[in-house]
UniProtKB/TrEMBL annotation, chain A:
Its main location: membrane. It is an enzyme of class 7 (translocase). Its EC number is 7.1.1.1. Pfam families: PNTB. Residues 4-447 form the NADP transhydrogenase beta-like domain. It comes from Lentzea pudingi. PANTHER family: NAD(P) TRANSHYDROGENASE SUBUNIT BETA. It is found in: Cell inner membrane. Belongs to the PNT beta subunit family. The transhydrogenation between NADH and NADP is coupled to respiration and ATP hydrolysis and functions as a proton pump across the membrane. The chain crosses the membrane at residues 6-22, 29-48, 54-72, 84-105, 111-136, 148-171, 177-195, 228-248. The keyword NAD applies. This is NAD(P) transhydrogenase subunit beta. It catalyses: NAD(+) + NADPH + H(+)(in) = NADH + NADP(+) + H(+)(out).
TrEMBL record, chain B:
This is proton-translocating NAD(P)(+) transhydrogenase. Pfam families: PNTB_4TM. The keyword Transmembrane applies. One of its GO terms (cellular component) is plasma membrane. The transhydrogenation between NADH and NADP is coupled to respiration and ATP hydrolysis and functions as a proton pump across the membrane. It comes from the Bacteria. InterPro entries: NADP_transhyd_a_C (IPR024605). It catalyses: NAD(+) + NADPH + H(+)(in) = NADH + NADP(+) + H(+)(out). One of its GO terms (biological process) is NADPH regeneration. The keyword Membrane applies. Keywords: Cell inner membrane, Cell membrane, Membrane, NAD, NADP, Translocase, Transmembrane, Transmembrane helix.
Length: 452, 88
């Protein structure tokens, strides 16, 4: 009775946590409430459910803390998405292991029980291996491009079919070997599922895998007949699904297109003429352009964060404002490596929240913008997404900076963006390119503007 | 069994409802927070290990406890670090 009450307290905490995390004002409290609920749940489980092996459990928890906290503390803000992916993956693996262990303890008799067991093992394994692949992609330990295996589609279908068959078989013949085999097939399925997802779509895959892990946890709740696991797992599964859809909407793509249509069109984009001219300018040219403008929009991208140039851009903006230039930051919903990632990165550099403008705030007035400064961004200002139906990123909403009076494009090189698509904006006569490291360029620019 | 199914269905609706209106700024922290919450599998891992009879169960359970703990503490800490940036 007390145990159930404590689990209820924890469940309520989790609902409040998600609610809090959805509003900027209460987000941090939400996270604390979630952590508190978790503490209640874990202490309750330990005090009431542990018959033996108590010391071992404490050691395993201590090890988890020793590994988890430093990892979470030391990770750079730019690397947050892959860290979340890893934490998600280990959660999925834990769910699969719990179902396996329970199966060897009590093989279970009812159909529901067996169904829950196979689903936990399958979804947990998919989530684990899928998350590992997304981690490798975002950490750039492997290519960020979509990987299309020679018979990838057939392999994925084969893995899908055999996992369903194994699920059915294991339910009829509850056999440990079959369950292990199912876990292995699940691992393969996770890899095959994420490999073709490329570039900017990887975070959406992470969000979906997050929802998967939630479902695996919910299914494990059936296995253990534990209401807390069912409630918490389902909450994450449901909210994760909605969140995934919201993210996909922010990119103007359907989920199916992201997961299965993955950038097939890349080869279809016609190559333009071989030699195309771009206009590159000096720091002084750009300083004059900016210093005498009335209205400037800065569009930052992941490149800014990689160059650790958030502070440099803030200083330049402050200097321009002192000269009476009105400046806003145009934050694309998927700037950075994850929706909202850029907001986190700029907040870290003390950029005031009010200066961060979204697409709908910037685009209607873009024609009266004197200079649009693109720093380390690429795909989010690529007019191909708007005008070129053959473009792989066609349909993604963009900042229409090509309609501003002039554009300054800070770039390290002519290398295409994360999605690997060429950008027409670079060849626009209105565009001035400023080559070099973003931080370096911004610092020089700041000095040059001060000289004006 | 039907009780558990009822709980599941109701929780689906609560989950949908709770995050239906969230601004893009909070997508990343929300995902990360939800990620920490599914670390509640730690409860399952503790229960299973606490009643484990065979070595196989014990090993599987302990690995699950370890992984789930990483999920929980890492998830909450990383979410807090993100949200810390928004305080003013």
């Amino acid at each position: 009775m007390t145990v159930q009450l404590m689990y209820l307290v924890a469940s309520v905490c989790f609902v409040l946590a998600l609610k809090g995390l959805s509003s900027p004002k209460y987000a941090r409290y939400g996270n604390f409430i979630g952590a508190f609920g978790m503490l209640v749940a874990v202490v309750t489980a330990y005090l009431h459910g542990v018959v033996h092996n108590g010391l071992w459990i404490l050691i395993a928890i201590a090890l988890g803390v020793v590994v988890g906290i430093p990892a979470a503390r030391s990770v750079k803000m730019t690397a947050i998405p892959q860290m979340v992916a890893l934490f998600n993956g280990v959660g999925g693996a834990a769910a699969a292991l719990v179902a396996l262990a329970e199966f060897f303890a009590v093989p279970g008799t009812t159909v529901m029980f067996r169904l829950a067991t196979v689903l936990t093992v399958l979804i947990g394994s998919v989530s684990f291996s899928g998350s590992v692949v997304t981690f490798l992609k975002l950490q750039e330990l492997m290519t960020t491009r979509p990987v299309l295996l020679p018979a990838g589609q057939q392999l994925a279908i084969a893995a899908g079919v055999s996992s369903v068959a194994l699920c059915a078989l294991t339910m009829v013949v509850p056999n440990g070997f079959l369950l292990w085999l199912l876990a292995v097939v699940g691992l393969a399925l996770g890899v095959l599922f994420v490999l073709p997802v490329g570039g900017a779509d990887v975070p959406i895959a992470i969000s979906l895998l997050n929802a998967f892990t939630g479902l695996a946890v919910a299914a494990s709740g059936y296995v253990l007949a534990n209401t807390l696991l069912i409630v918490a797992g389902t909450l994450v599964g449901a909210s994760g699904t909605i969140l995934t859809r919201l993210m996909a909407q922010a990119m103007g793509r359907s989920l199916a297109n992201i997961l299965f249509g993955a950038f097939k069109a890349t080869t279809a984009v016609a190559q333009g003429e071989e030699q195309r001219t771009v206009k590159s300018g000096t720091v002084e040219d750009v300083a004059i352009l900016l210093g005498y403008a009335n209205n400037v929009v800065v569009v930052p991208g992941y490149g800014l964060a990689v160059a650790q140039a958030q502070h440099a851009v803030r200083e330049l903006v402050s200097q321009l404002e002192r000269r009476g230039v009105s400046v806003a930051y145009g934050i694309h919903p998927v700037a950075g490596r994850m929706p909202g990632h850029m907001n986190v990165l700029l907040a870290e550099a003390d950029v005031p929240y009010e200066q961060l403008k979204e697409l709908d705030d910037v685009n209607p007035g873009i024609t009266s913008v004197d200079v649009a400064v693109v720093v380390g961004a690429n795909d989010v200002v690529n007019p191909g997404a708007r005008d070129e139906p053959a473009s792989p990123i066609y349909g993604m909403p963009i900042f229409d900076v090509d309609r501003a009076k002039s554009v300054v494009f800070m770039k390290r090189s002519m290398r295409p963006g994360f999605a690997g698509v060429d950008n027409e904006l670079l060849y626009n006569p209105k565009t001035t390119l400023l080559f070099g490291d973003a931080k370096d360029s911004l610092t020089k620019l700041l000095a040059a503007v001060k000289q004006l | 069994m039907i009780d558990l199914l009822t709980i599941f269905v109701l929780a689906v609706f609560v989950g949908f409802e709770v995050v239906s209106k969230v601004s893009t700024i909070l997508h990343t922290p929300l995902m990360s927070g939800a990620n920490a919450i599914h670390g509640v599998i730690l409860v399952g891992a503790i229960l299973i290990t606490g009643s484990a009879e065979s070595t196989l169960e014990l090993v599987l359970g302990l690995v699950a406890v370890f992984l789930a703990t990483v999920n929980v503490v890492g998830g909450f800490v990383v979410t807090d670090r993100m949200l810390e940036m928004f305080k003013r």
